[in-house]
Write a structure and sequence with these properties.
CATH topology: Pseudouridine synthase
Number of strands: 11
Number of domains: 1
Radius of gyration: 18 Å
CATH class: Alpha Beta
Shape: globular
Number of helices: 3
Distance between the termini: 25 Å
Strand content: 25-35%
CATH architecture: 2-Layer Sandwich
Structural class: alpha+beta
CATH superfamily: Pseudouridine synthase
Length: 225
């Protein structure tokens, strides 16, 4: 598998994950996972015979876009803290069926992960064991039957964008787990982690990357971002 690298230095490597593969090995023990591919890439570069590599976060298997991998334990600890402190900015693009929602807004709900269903349960009001989930969205393009939303995550909950959009009646296209009526042919969902901005965990610079979208399916109907 070719790896699309968005940024790399001796502490970090940021990769544009294609839809359909997991970030790290999951319960299925699939050999195709992004972390293993990045590990092999670093071995082929011969930077180290047994390179350190660890994902600092995950995005869902059917989702595409930016993933941060750390090449040193120092970077990993600091990136983990940056996620806890909410200093890493993440923006997504999502395609849903056209609706009458406001053109921009903030969604605030409460989510609880159900391991049995591999799904997030959602509540409008606080409940025991439910965690607050906040995102901002803006409708940036519309076509005859669909709309494209830009989404900024303010919290990072399991399946947050998928659950929150479904809760307001606009599940992501192809996301039958959260209520869309039809899956995409390749089993992807039309959700893409396209922008990430962060302070370098070791240096002083600001890292900002934009992950190109694989233009296929419904994405071909919209103007390029």
């Amino acid at each position: 598998m070719d790896i699309e690298i968005l940024y790399e230095d001796r502490h970090l490597i940021l990769v544009n994950k294609p839809a359909g593969i997991v970030v790290q090995q999951d319960k299925s023990l699939s050999e195709i996972n992004l972390q293993a591919q990045v590990y092999q890439y670093l071995k082929l570069k011969k930077e180290n015979s047994n390179p350190f590599i660890e994902a600092a976060h995950r995005i869902d298997r059917p989702t595409s876009g930016v993933v941060i991998f750390c090449k040193t334990s120092k970077a990993l600890a600091r990136v983990n803290k940056a996620f806890q402190d909410k200093t890493i900015q993440k923006k997504y693009l999502a395609i849903t069926h056209k609706s009458a929602i406001s053109t921009s807004g903030e969604l605030r709900h409460y989510l609880k992960r159900s391991s049995r269903e591999n799904k997030s349960l959602i509540s409008q009001t606080p409940k025991i064991d439910y965690k607050e989930a906040i995102l901002r969205y803006q409708v940036i393009q519309t076509i005859e039957n669909y709309q494209m939303l830009e989404i900024e995550l303010l919290t990072g909950r399991h399946h947050q964008i998928r659950a929150q959009l479904a809760h307001i009646g606009i599940p992501i296209k192809g996301d039958i787990k959260y209520g869309d009526k039809r899956s995409n042919e390749d089993k992807s969902i039309d959700l893409h982690a396209y922008k990430l901005k962060m302070n370098h965990p070791v240096g002083e610079e600001i890292i900002e990357v934009c992950a190109p979208i694989r233009i296929q399916g419904i994405w071909t109907k919209f103007k390029a971002i």
